[in-house]
From TrEMBL:
Belongs to the Glu/Leu/Phe/Val dehydrogenases family. It comes from the Bacteria. The keyword Oxidoreductase applies. This is Glutamate dehydrogenase. SMART domains: ELFV_dehydrog. It comes from Azospirillum aestuarii.
């Protein structure tokens, strides 16, 4: 998917062949072994990865995921997408991504801490606050970031809060970071609704994924008066044409850690949930959920891509053919709120001067407004899809940086 998207944008920008490999291939890809002592006294070895795509605009930036799906190809693709996302948002970063192939739910808290610290220990020669700054992702959280930061700091002999973002506020994190991605998704949905003349009080939404992004997005949509008809996670999917009780769903997930068990009467097949009529559909879980099999059957007005890579290139062509029938907020714009506020956290850590939540969220919304207008204006001017416009802006910025700096030596 990543290569196909880049090739399409490279063709759109008419990039010379001899520039394409330098723009696409990562600067550095690292594979490490992470042995830990299990609670039963045995030793287990987990494979860890980190890919740094480019450093032409500044240090690389990207999350670290703990998941059984993690491999070097997935991490590399996510790092490349992160580059276009950071460049589109105007952040002084290249893209990076990392992870460990593990089911974090299979680890005790002590084992999770041991694995987190060992992974960071193995990464120390390759990361730094001006080289590569990590953040949380699927399967990791604020606590894992605190362990990362502490491990790096112990090696340096001083506290280095700026080595990771997404930390607890008590250890140098920023207010608003946890909910930033979901809030950003909904703010952009509001901009799209205004553009299409849809009133929030009469709008409906379906949210696929009910974790840190989807849960916050559903909560914020509900708070803005949008009727949330359906939600899902990896355990269950629920749909009610009258609207779901989002606060009650959030309380259930807080108590049980999953949607399963909330209701039998409201259950629906997870694939069918995506095809129900609504104004806003938010895929906020895994990659490749909008495919050539269901793209033509989507019945939403706005597709807000809260996840990374939720739409395949084949599906994207189908969506583009639908024209004004469906407004797409592409992933590198739609879910960029997390990395934007991560940037704010990094800046605050470097300066040791911290902002309040209202200032953080206000700056986030202002940043997203500027980028949204850049993307929609370019899409209208060049008569291309919003995804092509967003990708073209991101790739062009990286290309210009590399071209200006030249090739060393």
């Amino acid at each position: 998917m990543c290569r196909q998207q880049f090739t399409a944008i490279a063709d759109h920008l008419d990039l010379p062949e001899d520039e394409r490999d330098r723009l696409l291939y990562p600067k550095r890809a690292i594979t490490v072994s992470c042995p830990i002592h299990r609670d039963d006294g045995s030793v287990a070895v987990f494979q860890g990865y980190r890919v740094q795509h480019h450093l032409s605009l500044g240090p690389t930036k990207g999350g670290t995921r703990f998941s059984t799906s993690v491999d070097i190809g997935e991490v590399a693709a996510l790092a490349v997408w992160m580059s276009w996302k950071c460049a589109l948002a105007g952040l002084p970063y290249g893209g990076a991504k990392g992870g460990v192939t593990v089911d974090p739910s299979s680890l005790s808290r002590r084992e999770l801490e041991a694995l987190s610290r060992r992974y960071m220990q193995e990464m120390i020669p390759f990361v730094g606050s001006h080289t590569d700054v990590m953040a949380p992702d699927m399967g990791t959280n604020e606590q894992v970031m605190a362990w990362f930061m502490d491990t790096y700091s112990m090696h340096q002999g001083r506290t280095v809060t700026e080595i990771v973002t997404g930390k607890p506020v008590a250890t140098g994190g920023t207010e608003g970071r946890r909910e930033a991605t979901g809030l950003g998704v909904v703010h952009l949905v509001g901009s799209a609704m205004e553009r299409l003349g849809i009133r929030a009080a009469r709008a409906t939404a379906i949210v696929q994924g009910f974790g840190n992004v989807g849960g916050v997005a559903a909560e914020e949509l509900h708070a803005r008066g949008v009727r949330v008809l359906g939600v899902s996670d990896h355990t269950a999917a629920y749909f009610d044409p009258k609207g779901l009780d989002v606060p009650d769903l959030l309380r259930h997930v807080a108590a049980h850690g999953m949607l399963a068990g909330y209701s039998n009467e409201l259950r629906i097949d997870r694939e069918e949930l995506l095809l129900q009529p609504c104004d806003v559909l938010v895929p906020a879980a895994m990659e490749r959920v909008i495919t050539e099999r269901n793209a033509a059957r989507l019945r939403c007005r706005i597709l807000a891509e809260g996840a990374n890579g939720p739409t395949t290139p084949e599906a994207d062509r189908i969506l583009a053919e639908r024209g004004d029938d469906l407004f797409v907020i592409p992933d590198i714009l739609c879910n960029s709120g997390g990395v934007i506020v991560s940037y704010f956290e990094w800046v605050q850590d470097l300066q040791q001067f911290f902002w309040g939540r209202d200032e953080v969220i206000g700056r986030l919304y202002g940043h997203l407004d500027r980028v949204f207008h850049q993307v929609t204006n370019r899409a209208a001017r060049e008569r291309v899809s919003t995804r092509v416009a967003a990708m073209a802006i991101g790739v062009s910025k990286v290309r210009d940086a590399k071209k200006t700096r030249g090739l060393f030596p």
